[in-house]
Amino acid sequence: MTAMLNVKDLRAYYGQVQALHGLNFSLNEGSLTTLLGANGAGKTTTLRAICNMVRSTGAIEFEGSPLTGRSTENIVRLGIAHVPQGRGTFTTMTVEENLQLGAISRKDKAAIVSDIERMYEHFPVLKERYTQQAGTLSGGEQQMLAVARALMLRPRLMLLDEPSFGLAPLVVRDLFKILGKINREDKVTILVVEQNAQLALELADQAYVIETGRIVMSGGAKDIANNEDVRKSYLGY
Amino acid sequence: MELFTNQILAGISTGAIYACMALAVVMIYQAIDHLNFAQGEMAMFSTFISWQLMQWGVPYWGAFVLAVAFSFVGGIAIERILFKPLAKAPILTNVAGFIALFSIINSCAGLIWDFTIKQYPTPFGSAPFLGSQLISTHQAGMIGVTVLLLIALYFFFQYTRIGLAMRAAASLPESARLVGINTSWMIALGWGMAAAIGAIAGILIAPVVFLEPNMMGGVLIYGFAAAVLGGLTSPLGAVIGGFLVGIFENLAGTYIPGVGNELKLPIALALIISVLVVKPAGLFGRPIVKRV
Amino acid sequence: MSAAEDVVPTEQEGQAVEAVPKRAMTLGTGTSLIVLAALILTPLLVKNFVIFQMTQLLVYGLAVLALNILTGGSGQFSLGQSAFYAVGAYTSAVLMEQYNVNYALTLPISGLLCFAVGFLFGQPALRLSGVYLALATFALATAMPQLLKLNFLEPWTGGVQGLVVTKPDAPFGLHMSQDMWLYYFTLVITIAIYLLSVNLLRSRSGRAFMSIRDNEIAASAMGVNVALYKTLAFGVSAGITGVAGSLGAIVVQFVAPDSFTITLAIQLFLGMVVGGVGWLPGSFVGAAFIIFVPNIAESVSKGLSGAVFGVLLFFVIYLVPHGARQVAIVSQQLVGKFKK
Lengths: 237, 292, 340
Prior knowledge:
The complex is a heterotrimer. Helix content of chain B is 74%, strand content 0%.
């Protein structure tokens, strides 16, 4: 299987502080990978580094082309959608405008319209609220909207930063089911960063564990979930 | 009573000037989240360009279109060359940049065209409008053009893709980049549009205040005040704010004793600020919710 | 250039005024002593006119310092400092010329009066911030010259023509020129106010100011009396500006309404930015900029002096977007490297 995303020796910095100390990992095409770790371990920084939202060194390759030196918006246009921490919803705009914005870099107008319809099928609650200001939606609904917006890009790789944050467990279950469906049916490679390790490991096929800016564990999701030592040392359960 | 309505009407017609300038102010605020102190000077310079074109024989509407187009390109150029390098600098440093730009443009205009007052033509004529002594056809024309601009801007922002992209870039730049929007160019575009609107404002205002390098000083402040009063996120608010400021100014001058021409500005500003103390986001603005 | 950029902490999104770390607020002891020595000894070596210019530098430096406390310290924008400067200048002028009050005595009176005015102005300003506060202070600045021209005040203010102020002689029959005496007098006051300001910013009140600057809502949630400290900051800043205005009036020997327009307020603002917002020593660098650069611009081209000034200003802000403070930090680093 070809590696869709290749990360080599990634080091990232916030001002003078180094947050990532030489990460090496890769994502296979069609995989659903989860990146786990405690607060402050560097999970969000990793996603931000992929999209060049933080100062970093190292080599990142997406489908063979290097990402270093490209601006965030150009990286996104290569087919990488990023649902950031806090969702990044355009709260002052309507649900439908948020979806339109997801596709703003595309030129195929007719396909965009049909894609919006498809999103309403995936997420019926959004159809109900399509003229509502996005800021008035509940947390779970905003998360659905964020995922739908990302999908409007027709991405080949989707990065999600703690999608379960602040959501009730049942809502998270539903959300993860949808993510699994997107991965299998729409063939979108997914990298999801999570603190909720248990659910993430149920969903994913690959997993990495990161601690203070270094990858300390990698392997199949089931193996890591079954490894009691790993779970106790790194994941807290 | 008649004096009162007359003053209101007179206020509306001067208010059209401020409304037009306020539109340009809101435009730039949407793009860069600050007020650009040099906007008045940019508008003045564009107006001089149109005047110069007319001196060289170009007919009014030709000069108008050329000047507005030049301003659009000029605004983008100024942003790319002078302010893009300051994008990561603190806001106050950028404000110093606006002041520097103000100084440069004002000085150059003075050198090229000197400080004598020049007449500037109007395509609307200056006959009394519909027989009224207080609104001339030109002032009616100003109001008409301002309203047209407002409608055009509304359509631009609500119904075009690039308008949507600009709104997104202004509202949440990081999220906008994450949907593939080049936020840097959105800022440049905002500058271009603001400069173009400013040019239109200057060209409409010049017949009334006469053309000279310092013509926009007072107008810009009233334009800021009008935009702030209307709520800096709302073009409609800017226009209504402009008319209200015109009315405030006139009423203050007429009814408050001891207020000559010089004190009109601070009094008008004081009135606006009292409104803001009650409604901090302006009349039509959306209150900004800040997360701690 | 990138070395300097890395060193200066970048702003967080949404934070209008940068936070200057406390220990960076002043010069190191070594540098301070050198600067002090220069300030004390130079007048003995130069002509009266240069001494006069140095005095002006101290006066404007004080005014910029006041603005630094307000904006760099408590995060409130003000384009209205010229108003407080004018009140201070006129207070001294009127007291000296109409009531024969000793010049030195007018300073504390002026300071207290301006403190009160600033404190009062701070009250309605409480609900305003950023752009809105800028407009409000702008209104104050544009109103002031007009208020000073009001007819019924003319017996005191001298109306449009203003007042001539008598220059004091050196006391106790000291053998120095008026300029030199005035310089040392101003220097002592400047140093006193500078030290008091540094102390203020390092004190509990200073910390309160800075917490308000950095995050007003969080500060209030932590129990900081935001209203009190914001108005206090305005008061202190206005008071110091008033003292500066008084000194200015005595040094220039003249007050007139049109000397105190919005142009002065804008100049003080530029002085703050060029010196480095929130960095007190930078106030004097900024003052030097606003006094000398316009003259340089005019000597380059009389017709385009404004344009030359603008270009020079751009030059400065490109080189050091964070003002003179940036230069100081880089120099400190270089000196640190030499020591190793």
